[in-house]
Write a structure and sequence with these properties.
Length: about 210
């Protein structure tokens, strides 16, 4: 197909496709004659992947490039690919010093132990949970680590279910699908949490006399 049809099928402006080609986010097409090339399903799938990573997951193009290169690196084990994904979506590290951070770190260590998880001490998700708990403590929240145990138990089951989709020796396409699922499941989980909170907030805090 020509670039105009590729644009139509993916909803991506021709100018954006050309930009992705220049930036090597999109592989070149098959040359047909001077200044023209033919594109195939590989390009359709790659554009849809880029759109998902940028629009739905909110990644910048440098993070997208890093992820795409890591997906195509067959020497990179899947656990390391997930760590690349986590680094791509991670916010900048916050301050993790002080008594609140020390207490939060102890709490997270206890949660990891109770769940039986094997994690490096400097694993990004572990550090981010420390940051969350430390921030809550600084704000005077009475929310303790036990409050998060149901989250951890649900996350454990969801993670196992997510990994059931991945074959033992994933191809490049299956590795891409694993990354997309990981990112989209996080978006879906956040969305469902907000939906549940909106529902229960409306029930608990409905104005007196409002039965609607």
């Amino acid at each position: 197909m020509r670039i105009s049809e590729l644009s139509r099928r993916t909803g991506t402006p021709v100018g954006t496709i050309k930009f992705y080609l220049r930036e090597r986010l999109l592989p070149p097409g098959q040359p047909t004659n001077r200044n023209q090339a033919s594109y195939g399903e590989r390009h359709v799938n790659r554009l849809r992947l880029i759109r998902t990573l940028t629009v739905m997951a909110g990644l910048d193009l440098s993070s997208v490039r890093l992820l795409l290169n890591s997906i195509e690196d067959g020497r990179l084990p899947l656990p390391d690919l997930y760590r690349v994904m986590e680094a791509a979506v991670a916010a900048d590290d916050q301050e993790t010093d002080g008594p609140e951070a020390d207490a939060a770190r102890t709490d997270v260590d206890a949660l990891v132990h109770r769940m039986g998880w094997s994690l490096e001490a400097d694993a990004l998700p572990r550090k981010h949970l420390v940051e969350v708990l430390a921030a809550l403590k600084r704000l005077g929240s009475t929310c303790e680590i036990d409050f998060f145990m149901p989250y951890a138990e649900a996350a454990d089951g969801l993670a196992q279910g997510e990994l059931d989709f991945v074959p033992a020796a994933p191809t490049s396409g299956e590795r891409a699908a694993a990354v997309v699922r990981g990112l989209m499941f996080e978006v879906a989980l956040t969305a469902m949490g907000r939906m549940a909170r909106d529902h229960h907030a409306a029930l608990r805090f409905r104005p007196v006399g409002d039965e609607g």
